[in-house]
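Repro:
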Amino acid sequence: MKKRNTLLLLSTLVALASVAQACSSKGEEKKEELPAAAKINTDPVTLTFYGNMSEELFQKLIVNPVKLKYPHIDITLVPMSKKIDELIASGEVPDILGDNISNISKYKSLSLAEDLTPYLKTYNVDTSKIDPVALDTARKHSGDGKLYALPVSGNVVTMYYNKDIFDRFGVPYPTDGMTWDQVYELAKKVTRTDGGIAYRGYDFQDAFQIQYNQLSVPIIDEKTEKAIVNNAEWKKMFENWARFYSITGNEVDATTYGKGLNLFSKDKTLAMYSTSSFFSSMPEAVKNGLNYDVVSLPSFPEAPATGVQFEGGGRMISTTSKHKDQAFLALSAMLTEDAQRLIARNGNAAVLTNADINKDFGLDIEVLKGKNREAFIKNKNAKPFSSITKYDAAAFGILRAQFKKYATGQADVNTALREAEELINKSIEEQRKQQ
């Protein structure tokens, strides 16, 4: 019996030793499996960044956050006043390309967008910290199962209103969480002429509400590459927006259509206007007497508390860069919580899942002090289109033109949508011939 117990003890010790050795081997294997690129090269490097922003914002939102995490990386701005075709011709394409997520296809067509998927794995970037709608939007615009850009900031579409106009007519101010039906009724109450001045109730910037619509209705079927706009969904949205222009005193024609921003910020005769932020021009408007506040973008009943789809800034690495790994490190630094908080404070939505960051939205914007900053973070982004193609940009230009025809009385809604479908399909065919 004693001999048997001794043998059992020896067997157990051997087994434990084998497990320990296996664990040690696994640990060594993990170290060996780490790709060489994961070892950060800290040699000083200067990267170039292609973007549309002031030097002041560039230093605050790009240079400083990157420098804080990676002191060896310097970045200089290449303004978008230099066209990308010119930079290609001169062999001076910047290392990092900053542009709207919806423009990824443009850089793909120029063979300038580097797939970021390998870099995400190499540097163990946790994409679960990025808002899934923003990330999904970037993936859909990238296509081919790849990711050509990381989202870093989002534009927010809200509804601004002139408090003086509502006070003049004794009408309650708009509130967060309104439906389009409620805003329509409100617009009728503040569309009137008083003291020889014609006050208009509501207008909007069609580029956002059509191209990034709240119901996520696509414009082209990616499988057939045919237009899909002559349907009940687009008709519903067209009729919803156009009804505001049927209010007596709020009509538009071919020359007055699309003038809402000036009517709101300069003439101060427009009661409500929905658009993305226009913080750069707002100080002048406030100085000249605009007494405004802001509420969340009104929504459809079937999509409550839902704004437009994600529309915002992305960052790409150019395929021509000689410092791709360092460029990726710079991109990742723009997604730290500190960097994202700076983005939110300066008037763009952060793209991290940490909701507390966006509570700081607009804190560094002087004209938002004392205003309803919560309006910018009330709505969630609508889901991206189920179908996104390289032909979308041109197609939306056609659809907006057709909405204008309908809104200004040059065509009924059915004709406008039927013509839109025909024109989009024709445009697709023409683009194919040029490929």
